[in-house]
Amino acid sequence: MSRPPSPPPQLPGFRYLHPLGVGGFADVFLYEQEMPRREVAVKVLLADRISSTAAQEFADEANVMAMLSTHPAIVTIYQAGVAGDGRPYLVMEYCPRPNLQLRARNETFSIAEALRVGVQVAGAVETAHRAGVLHRDIKPANILVTEYNRPALTDFGIASTTNAAEESAGLSIPWSPPESFADVPRSDPRSDVYQLGATVYSLLAGRSPFEVAEQRNTAAELIERIMKSATSPALTNSDADFFVVHAKS
Fold first, then answer.
1. Which of 104, 163, 202, 210 is surrounded by the fewest CB atoms within 10 Å?
2. What CATH superfamily is the domain 14-93?
3. What is the CATH number of domain 100-240?
């Protein structure tokens, strides 16, 4: 972890177990829910991030996930609230297996498994689009894996309606389409499709589409490659040569 996790809040009906991860805006902890008895992931907004805007964004994320989480490839949200110390929190399905970013660092996905994941998450993305929601941050780290080895899309923290004209600052550069870096950033359903394609590419290649081995891959250099390249470099696996990410969506 890049920093120590914040203190876990006391939540009635839940017993704290241990931290799961830290982030720039929120920490995630493992709790045991007392009734019904099950392990759950609890996402808690950091105290120094609490503001009227942040609290509203947190509530928006809860509402979006609640609307969509009946889909089997979207993380289920159970409840939301404000802890006694004033921090908003979300209680979500606990996905115990390593997320896809962690897996991709340690192993290369087979063509069959990468496509299976892509198809299942594509169904989740289509469901979100039909509901008028853009995810806007699809990447390997935001695809969790359930106990039954199913992918589950999470982190709708910068989601927006599909008619939104401007992009949030919370994008993840390596998987973002070129329109995210325009003078007037924008996104539409094609942006999510691009990010999903870039994610599947990453599972097959072990790196994001525009990272170059043994070269500098700073944010500025990645943005320049994304903006200037017509397609991502071809994969070296001959079975996957057909798979490229088109940078001009």
1. 163
2. Phosphorylase Kinase; domain 1 (3.30.200.20)
3. 1.10.510.10
